[in-house]
Design a protein that fits this description.
heterodimer, A: 337 residues, mainly alpha, ABC transporter involved in vitamin B12 uptake, BtuC, two-stranded antiparallel sheet, B: 261 residues, alpha/beta, Rossmann fold, 6-stranded mixed sheet, 4-stranded antiparallel sheet, 10 strands, 24% strand, globular, binds adenosine-5'-triphosphate, binds magnesium ion
């Protein structure tokens, strides 16, 4: 039985999904090494924190995107929903609401967009691609219409806290009277990302809803016949994606201390790329939050490293496009085996 | 058969069921009933409408017209959950497994076991699944593999285990042994006899005449969507059934054989 022998030998090797995660992690390490050589400022605490900050928005989007992708769907609307959520929060603050409730309601607005996506996908039976493409235009349109395409500024200092604040920041007063930053601190957005990622992973792995998300994506018909409420599961996933897009909007707008109704264009592609690089299959049924976080950091490091090396934005586009196609190609080879 | 007539309320009764897909009549005016402790064979050529009829009873498909009675009262089976709430469990011909998930996840799909805190109770699902699967196939290993990596027979065993685990009153088995080897098939036959002795009613779809004569108390033959004959198994022989399946009529000059098998 050479087959058995082979099987037992293969047990020592990581299985499909962890193999993919491992190779993604190696890719990430490789990128970090390469960029450390191309730019001396790349490998430093400060730049590390910058990457963390930049990645947190894509990371938040990627958590929701991964859930939707596991159900076998896609959410192209997250970039626009992010902007609309920011606009809602900004307008509410202008109307006199304090920052915190305004941000909660902004996030909630994102969740509503996601809920509508879910309803359209399940009840009207429109494909996720078309539904969320429509929502991408609708949400962006509303955001631009509400603001007349102008940014909302002067939202107060408190509005910038979420995006710019940090834990354990150490500042020292120098003799010349200027403050010197000893340790820039761990940015709030990074902590928020960590919390949401852990929560997302917990829901996917340990809760019934997560199991149902995998079941639906693996075989919708089998899930239905086994008594899984397929519609409810999908609506849940799209709502989560919308809500996380809303939250990402709060982080991004807060970092800019201004609401920009035309922010977040093409962010959905980064989020999809992060999920796919992290091993989520666009056919559904496969994916993990940890993988998608690695994917988000690969994108983040890639962008940051290319920036620091002085690569133009256009070349960055080309490189990331190639990386995504490569990741999907690897995924296909993996599935064929 | 004696045990078929001891109880006078049927577990389920399907009356004048019709199912149309556009212009196609998949099921046309079929009535059938099932009593506790009875195995009723549903026979017919490929495409005769057997699976459609059974899927209607499973709540997986809705009938165009016709009535379903469960314990003599009308029942609406709009979803598989509805059917399950009446104690109707199904082994689908297509197995209905989620390929990326492992055996325990499939066995408990839609009915996951949870801990006190509402989290998935993986260890308990694994032990319960191991026990349920071992009953049918003692050398069932690789329980944690995604079921896409299992053999056809192993997959079928999971589908069977899933249907019997939840203590059905009515069991629908749509070609349950199609992918099984001889020893697993024998195990399923034993299982059917055991469930039957526990008073469970079983609809068995099978193309295997040997199984049909060994296990069924009654048979119902479908031909092109119609019920072309329902008999006690002792009143017919293999040739009669083949004739009904193929031509839709009994051989000329047929009369009840009265158990001369
Ligand atoms: N979802 C569907 N849409 C359209 N037609 C269908 C559908 N399901 C079944 N049919 C048609 O209904 C008829 C009966 O199919 P059914 O699956 O019940 O056959 P069957 O008796 O189970 O055959 P087999 O022995 O091959 O399993 C076939 O002609 C089939 O083409
Ligand atoms: Mg069939």
């Amino acid at each position: 039985m050479s087959d058995d022998a082979q099987k037992s030998r293969l047990k020592f090797l990581p299985t499909g999904s962890s193999l993919h995660k491992l190779s993604a992690l190696l890719t990430l390490a490789l990128l970090i090494v390469v960029f450390s050589f191309t730019s001396s400022a790349f490998f430093s605490v400060n730049n590390g924190l910058t990457v963390l900050l930049q990645t947190s928005v894509i990371g938040l989007l990627a958590i929701g995107m991964t859930m939707v992708i596991i159900t076998g769907g896609i959410d192209l609307s997250v970039g626009s929903v992010l902007a609309l959520a920011g606009v809602v929060a900004g307008l509410l603050i202008k109307a006199g609401l304090p920052v915190f409730p305004a941000m909660v309601l902004g996030t909630f607005a994102g969740a509503i967009c996601g809920f509508v996506n879910g309803l359209v996908v399940t009840k009207m039976r429109i494909t996720p691609f078309v539904t969320t493409l429509g929502m991408m235009l609708v949400a962006r349109g509303i955001a631009l219409q509400l603001t007349g395409a102008a940014p909302i500024s002067r939202l107060g200092e408190a509005f910038g806290t979420l995006g710019n604040g940090s834990f354990f920041r150490v500042v020292e007063m120098q003799a010349n009277g200027f403050p010197k930053v000893v340790f820039p601190g761990i940015p709030y957005p990074a902590v928020l990302l960590l919390i949401m990622a852990l929560l997302g992973a917990f829901l996917l792995k340990k809760r019934q809803i997560g199991r149902h998300i995998f079941s639906v994506g693996s075989s919708e018909e089998a899930a239905r016949l086994s008594g899984v409420n397929v519609d409810r599961t999908k609506i849940w996933a799209y709502t989560a994606s919308g809500g996380l897009a809303g939250l990402a909007g709060m982080v991004l707008m807060s970092r800019l201390v201004t609401v920009q109704p035309n922010e977040g264009v093409m962010y959905e592609l980064d989020a999809i790329a992060a999920s796919v690089i992290g091993g989520a299959s666009l056919m559904g049924g496969v994916g993990s939050i940890s993988g998608s976080m690695i994917g988000a950091f690969i994108i983040g490091v890639l962008r940051n490293g290319l920036n620091m090396a002085g690569t133009s934005a256009f070349i960055q586009m080309i490189i990331i496009g190639v990386v995504v196609i490569g990741a999907v190609y690897i995924d296909q080879i993996r599935n064929r085996n | 058969m004696l045990n078929a007539s001891t109880s006078d309320t049927p577990l389920v009764k399907m009356v004048d069921i019709h199912k149309q897909f556009g212009g196609i009549h998949a099921v046309e005016g079929v009535s059938v009933d099932l009593y506790p402790g009875e195995v009723v064979g549903v026979l017919g050529h490929n495409g005769a409408g057997k699976s459609c009829l059974m899927r209607i009873l499973s709540g997986a498909m809705s009938q165009t017209s016709g009535e379903i009675l469960v314990n003599d009262s009308p029942a609406t089976l709009n979803s598989p959950q509805d059917a399950r709430s009446y104690g109707i469990e199904t082994i689908y011909q297509t197995l209905a497994l989620a390929n990326h998930l492992d055996a325990p996840a499939n066995l408990f799909m839609g009915r996951e076991l949870k801990t006190r805190f509402g989290n998935l109770d993986e260890p308990r699902m694994l032990t319960e699944a191991t026990e349920a699967l071992r009953q049918l196939n003692p050398n069932f290993k690789n329980l944690r593999d995604p079921v896409s990596r299992l053999s056809g027979g192993q997959r079928q065993v999971i589908a069977i285990a899933r249907a019997i685990y939840f203590q059905a009153k009515v069991l629908i088995m749509d070609e349950p042994t199609a992918a099984l080897g001889p020893s697993e098939t024998a195990m399923v036959s034993d299982l059917i006899l055991r469930l039957k002795s526990e008073g469970i009613g079983i609809f068995l779809i099978s193309h295997d005449m040997h199984d049909v004569f060994e296990l069924c108390d009654r048979v119902m033959v479908m031909n092109k969507g119609k019920n072309v004959g329902a008999f006690r198994i002792n009143d017919v022989n293999k040739d009669d059934i083949l004739s009904l399946i193929i031509k839709g009529t009994l051989p000329e000059g047929w009369r009840p054989r009265g158990g001369d098998q």
